Amino acid sequence: MAKAFGPVRLVGTLDDLNFYMSADGNIARVKGKTGNTKKSFRENPIFTPVKEHSKDFGRCAKKGAVFRRLVKPFYDCAKDGSIAGRSHQLLHAIIKEDTAHERGQRQLHIGLRSAAALDFLVGFEGNKGRPLVKVLKRKVVFNWIRREINLKTIHPLRHLDWPDEATHVHLQLAISNWNCEADTFETSYSNAIVLSKEAGLTKLAFEQEALENKDLWLAFIHIRFSSRLYNSVKVLPNRWNTTTLIGCRWGE
Questions:
Q1: Angstrom distance (rounded) from CA 157 to CA 195
Q2: 120: which of 36, 39, 61, 136 lies 20 to 30 Å off by Cα?
């Protein structure tokens, strides 16, 4: 490794030399030789575990794209930059629950049938920086028979963690039916309840339609904040809002 001096700063590759800028200045170094080729990676058995892991993870990445579309309108208002990576990591943990297949051939829809998989899913946050337990100061449980949460009333000022500029809060539920094997889903959204910060104790009356298909059911709660000036309403940026998976079960 050497340092380049002169009025011209070089960045890029020249024959076997790589030029790049660093905290120490303009650096030049000889290109490294990895010793691995496409052929050796394809034929050497030492790389088999890596390739098998990549197959499983790649399968989870495709399923993760569908998973994030289940309640896309919610995630559009409440997610952080790590949601894709975190959803892939979650589904990769679930695919490992498929003990019927070898690594590299495991299937997510089989892994989802394990009891542990449902526990993994519950609590997944769209926005890691604003988890439900931080935003809503009351425990939420979803009742599948009645298709409702346990909270019948809410006091916005006391029970919610408000961003400074927010004047209103929007609360909404959703239930998704996900056929993971076929990559299809349907989602039923409840009515949205909009409350001002000074609303006082208010009854929560969500109306939720039943699902027709009987695959994997997932329940979500969405809380987003907005600021209102005269007749104009501005939804606050994603970092202030919350989308949380609060329940899942297999349809009967």
A1: 10
A2: 136
